[in-house]
Amino acid sequence: MMKVTNVNPAYVIDEISSQHFIDEHYFIYVVKGIVVLYDGSKYLELRSGQSCIARKNRLGRYYKMREDGELEKVILTLDESFLRRFYNKYKTTIAKFDSTETCIPVNNSELLDSYIGSLHQIYSRGKISEPFSEIKREELILILLQNQPELAGLLFDFGIPAKINLEEFMVRNYTFNVNIERFAFLTGRSISAFKRDFRHIFNETPGRWLVLKRLQEAYFLIEQKGMKPSDIYIDLGFETLSHFSFSFKKQFGMTPTNLSDKRQRSA
After folding, report:
1. What tens digit of pLDDT does each residue of 216-236 get?
2. 83: domain range?
3. Which sign, positive or negative, has the C-alpha torsion 254, 214, 39, 74?
4. What range(s) does the HTH araC/xylS-type domain occupy (predicted)?
5. What would the pLDDT profile of 233-250 be if each residue is shown by its tens digit?
6. How many domains does the chain have?
């Protein structure tokens, strides 16, 4: 059974994904080790034999961890052009897909496990070698739809994000490292409409608000939770530790390391 948690798991992390915008649907299957996916509100933990679909046009990041020294996973891109070809070929029946989750758990099955085993000689670094790519991805979709027919409503929905509550979305997703154009797209707005609505709601520009919000959260995590600057800067949307430290000092008059040392001395 997959584990869903609202607290950042305390694992020894091998890698954190640098790409936070999910541009296509992705099928993720863990063979060995642990993969944890975060969507802005909760974490989904995948262990050996578990899988999910990471949903297109969402924000998310993943953490990869070894278990008993091993880590092996299969990640396949289910891009829109491929899914359109599949739909036109098989004329799949589509029902409404009700779940709003970013990471959709996939039911375990012997057929799916056998399929993963069949990729051993032809899969490498997220790609299935030609000429097998199309047919093996078709096989995957057929297996998924046999076990969970409702997934058709997710995979073959080729629409774009509709206009949503901007304030709620930004407060939930400000830590993701994506540009303003992405935020505008995901909230169903043009860039000009996004900036106008943003200023009306927050009385600030998106760029300044994002930096300040991230820095305020960093200050809280260091001062109140005792977390190390090096452990939080990526999760808060900063690309490098040096950029994080520079921005932090500019805002608060001290580096995050200074604040951390100050907390330790007063503890």
Report:
1. 999 999 999 999 999 999 889
2. 3-155
3. negative
4. 164-262
5. 988 999 899 999 999 999
6. 2
Query: What are φ and ψ of residue 52, in 5° steps?
Result: -160, 170
Structure token pair of residue 44: 């989904």
CA 35, CA 98: separation in Å to the nearest integer? 25
Contact partners, residue 88, CB within 8 Å, separation at least 6 = none
Specify the pLDDT at position 19.
64
Tokens of 233: 């800067």
Q: Are residues 148 and 172 in the same domain?
A: no
SS3 at position 15: strand
Residue segments in the chain with a per-residue pLDDT below the cut of 50: 1-2, 4-15
For residues 140 and 242, membership in a common domain is answered with no
Cα–Cα distance measured from residue 115 to residue 133, given in angstroms and rounded to the nearest whole number: 13
- For the sheet with 43-46, list strands across it: 3-5, 43-46, 34-38, 61-65, 15-16
pTM > 0.90: yes or no: no
